[in-house]
Write a structure and sequence with these properties.
The complex is a heterodimer of chains A (285) and B (143). Chain A has 285 residues and is mainly alpha-helical. Chain A contains 10 helices and no strands. The radius of gyration of chain A is 19 Å and the shape is globular. Chain B starts with 8 loop residues before the first strand and ends with a helix. Classes of the chains: A mainly alpha (285), B alpha/beta (143).
Amino acid sequence: MILKIILIIIITPLVGGLLAGMDRVISARLQGRHGPSVFQPFYDVLKLTQKESIQVNTMHRFYVYASLAFIILTVVVMLTGGDILLAIFVLTLGSILFVLGGYSSNSPYNTIGSERELLQMMAYEPMVLLTGAGLYYADKSFFIKDIISAKVPAIIYLPGVFLGLIYILTFKLRKSPFDLSMSHHGHQEIVKGMTTEYSGKDLAIIEVTHWYETVIALTLVFLFFATSSLESRIFAVIACLLAYLFEIIVDNGFARVKWQLALKSTWLVTGVLGSINLIVLSFFR
Amino acid sequence: MNYVKKSPWILHYDGTSCNGCDIEVLACLTPLYDVERFGIINTGNPKHADVLVITGSVNEQNIPVVKQLYEQMADPKVVVAIGICAATGGIFADCYNVSGGVDKVIPVDVYVPGCAARPESIIDGVVKALGILDEKRNAMKLK
């Protein structure tokens, strides 16, 4: 068990980093460029660890490390087949700590980034909870190990909840049009959003945290397709990759929207899709 | 191994100039030259940047800006002055408000000549700066 947890902690960021590298290569190809090596995110993080870390105040840095710790806990809970509600709540705590880190620097750019991050959380959190509730409705268990060993994949019961999840995945993966608080692209950012005041090792930690978060987001997609059979799990991994590819294409195809539209459209789309799906399901189950 | 050569992030600042070099710097990011092949990213944030790319000369108004940008960058860092204005003040050198090249205010590591500097020579200049960045990182390790 301990060995398994250590393996999860080591392998997850490697997978997340490779996904980020693939993202950069595919984005470049979509824009008619050659793009960097697929290992570029790892070079970036290794470089950042070799840079000077400018500390604004004592708490500033603490929040980033605390955020990483809770995100790692989420990954461990999810990938060991634990309780999905616990995972969702710990994930939220990790995100909140990151927001507090943004506020603690008192920089105007960080503050505006943090405010936007809170708005984003307001937009996507209801759908994350609906996902947990929906999976419980479909499989009568909050434990991930039960959900992925069901007879029928959850997507059969929860197509609406799945579409809602895909909608908020854009927030979680920090992709356009919903990358209000910090984006991967400097040219559409107010300086650099929430990460403006971070440098060196602290920024490297933020990158690694984002790799973990990518894997968490794709694990949620995985849960909708996986059943007890091996073939379905292979298919579920392919579905995760397709969802990620879809997000990259959306990222390249859209400009950032205003926060009003982001919030309203997300509540409307996820509220309608999620709740109608759950109401219909409650008649049949 | 020093990874700074594999992922140099650039901060671009334009002083007093005709914007010719400015446009050529941005041209490096376009699909034709695509400097992201080498991991080069144009950040808008001095705290994330490794290379400060300055086009145009400095004048009385932007001296504090240039100084502040340079001081906010994390070590190791290098400065690349692009175009003749950034090197000496160029055609604007005699203006009443122009102080001269960027080296009047902050230490410059690489000068890229030209009016306007061509994208190829800008990329050459940045690559040369990476060698200096590597040396600075080694000096940091010894400290």
